[in-house]
């Protein structure tokens, strides 16, 4: 019934996950090509004068920008104000559009492949920036940047430009706002104190905590959806550095990047899944945790769970929510960075702005971005909303209050559009009254920060895509239950898992990942 | 058929028949009422649980699961659904407008197509039926479709992008064809002899005779339009043009995003919707369309008119 | 009727009919046939600059992932068997409900029952999935009842056996109202004369149903079955995905082509491979429907789909 719907369902769901790499045929690309050459070739004469401005008035231009995520209730008002300023300063207006969060990846890729006229779009390593750049979705900005975004060109660190360089061309403007998003656990700190348990430091202390919660509090420590909660602990504790976005091939530690192995074939993995079988049998999580629909954190809120995987900023969100709901509990946070005492900042390319090839006015679009990033008036408006409404000045120039005094957050929700792409640290303002743990963690992380040498390894899986699909299939079917110790016999299941992986061609995949990684390490001089 | 009935009637025409018939009717009624009551309950209870859930306190749902009657009644979920009431009302009117326009146009085109394909004297009927059915087997996928809609037809952000795609479906047309096949051919024949044109026969005779069929297809079309969020998701970019289902679907979507690995990169201020909100959304979205069904039921009248025309 | 003049005469004769169906034909050409060129993606290694026709032709390369894993047979079997169960059980339940609805006398009861049967149609699979989980989880309704009866609880999510029935049950449950409407409309189209004649002849209500209603529903039944057969290789992705989720332990009995393809491409989505999988499903549906339709045409022309 509803055949059309059915037909769509699969297509949509398929494409929801990852990108549809696709194009719409010669004509668009030719047009894009032309724009490209217009943009870069035409630099010298007429358009150059456009940048140096003032002498000749700028031609009136209307741009279309796209951001991922949802719009805000007051977006019209904010845009009206922004466009007023833009029109005065650059004789430009921007039509800002949003993908909305549902199926954003599908829509994001369709926008690029169909060649719709877009002058600036959010780009990110987690939105297939590298893949798309390599396939020619974005405009090479190398020549345009010094001319049309001079301030940005000057204040983005050289390494950061490196992270958005693909095949010699710069395909995006990265944000400049170093952040740390390591994994960690939020947990019931009040229970830990009550039960007289040591603070978390290693696996044993975590195990002791779970055991006490289970036996003395009679609460399932990790309730609801469990897989990710266990998997992040596994990776962090053993310091496996996954490479190329799959869950099976990893460097054995940060210090041995070239020792790349198939994770389930290692002794560490074998020891781990045996431990997990014990944990599962002791009831640290439920038998149906692979089918659960509920986040582990939801159960903490109802007093039926104790542990939930979060990164520091989302831990802050969780802790603030618990406070706001006046739930009678104390929540602690333990970042897994303490296992091995180092942390990697997020890649600059994880939040960036790029110009699609279909853009008719790339120069002007860059000029607007330059202004937006670097002019605090522009920056504050588009990042925090309207002053006096969404926010107000705090006790000093670097802090703000959200919302502005006398404004009801229910009426005027916080201004939270996906502004990550243009964030620039010197312009960022700090919110008063947030979770103070976040700042403490930042202080903790800064001295132990090491560069991310794994994230930028871009893997073009095309030559081994059949093997990858097969391996992923085996992982989903056998790897996940094994990780959660839900099988009756670990040894037998592990053997099946390894055999199936071999049959699926994991060794071919390993060879390929090794090749690509070593190539990158050679390039960067990493031993 | 009728010979079969007659034979049977002859075989059964004994005395005492009436009593037996009554007994059987009673048995039939008992089975029928029991079965339908059971089926109705099985269909009602999950829905009731969802409705009850939408009025339950968030933490209670997580800790206790679905309950027939919540311990503490809470309107929080509805408060957040209706936090921007203007938008909900506007979305309702978009949905209602699109549903009415699309269903009317759809039923007109579907019934014409169904009628033409049901005419035995129309030589191309099998070819065209195949041509239509074939579209359910193969599809080119999302990309060519998207490019067609936006670049070639220029329907981005247009109400037509909501009305056109669900307008005709092979399923509806073929169903319509089968409904119309059951109208005796003699009616068409006699009208033809009277000199009526094909369109006139369709309009004056066929349409009034196929009310149950029209009601069914009309209902399916209306349901299709009402439940469609996909086209809006793909093509509508202005919030004031969002239909209801899409608006509500959008409310739920941030949860899905947060559950993916990408969630780790997102700012902490993306608040996931709560369990009760999901249910409230389902209730708000389906509420009015459920009322449509009893309305459609009045068209399910036994085909007496067939006899009337015949006689 | 031969040669050119025959065709022209034919066209002229059915000019009005052709005009009446013309919008439909145009609609399907535009919205279905033109985008169908996209199936070519299945045979290319896609690249952005080349687009659909400029990309490299790779033959059957994109189909390899389906055949290489060795589970295709099991998947195909699961998909086909589930669909057959859905189609036949679904239709039978719908016919039973429609027959009773048409014959019972209590008007209010009938209307209420009919409306209630439509409710599941409105629940999204996401909610149904949550509901199913609430029934069968460790602390779910079923296990609570088992405990209260002093029986052992049962780990539904570790065993494949019950899921075949659970899935079929919910599929039939969800489509019940929708399908019943079709059969009800078909029953309504049966002239009262038949029943009156039968009553005069003294036929009981069961005899009326067996000898009038059911035979007259046969064309509709065959039509609906035929229509569904074309999609026999396409599974209801949402149903399986929302009820089973990523529970690998249940896959042997519950994995269908659609969920398999979905999982295979989670790490690296590839438009060529996605299209290839769809084409595999379409092709078998197409072959099957052509054969079945041919047989039915030979036996009874009226029942065939085209």
From TrEMBL, chain A:
What the entry lists under SUPFAM superfamilies is as follows: Periplasmic binding protein-like II
Q: Which keywords does the record carry? A: Signal
Show which residues constitute the signal peptide: 1-31
- Composition bias (Polar residues) maps to 33-52
Q: Where is this region: Disordered?
A: 31-55
Question: What are the DUF3502 domain coordinates in residue numbering?
Answer: 459-520
Its recorded name reads ABC transporter substrate-binding protein
Gene source species? Paenibacillus graminis
Automatic annotation (TrEMBL), chain C:
Alphabetically ordered keywords of this record: Cell membrane, Membrane, Transmembrane, Transmembrane helix, Transport
Localization annotation: Cell membrane
Q: Which residues form the signal peptide?
A: none
Where do the ABC transmembrane type-1 domain residues begin and end? 76-292
| Membrane-protein topology | Multi-pass membrane protein
Name one cellular component (GO) term: plasma membrane
The regions listed as transmembrane in this protein's record are 21-43, 80-104, 116-136, 165-191, 212-233, 278-296
What biological processes does GO assign it?
transmembrane transport
> InterPro entries under this entry?
ABC_transporter_permease, MetI-like, MetI-like_sf
Query: Where this protein primarily resides, as one coarse class?
Result: membrane
Family named by the database record: Belongs to the binding-protein-dependent transport system permease family.
- Identification of the protein by name: Sugar ABC transporter permease
Which lineage?
Bacteria, Bacillati, Bacillota, Bacilli, Bacillales
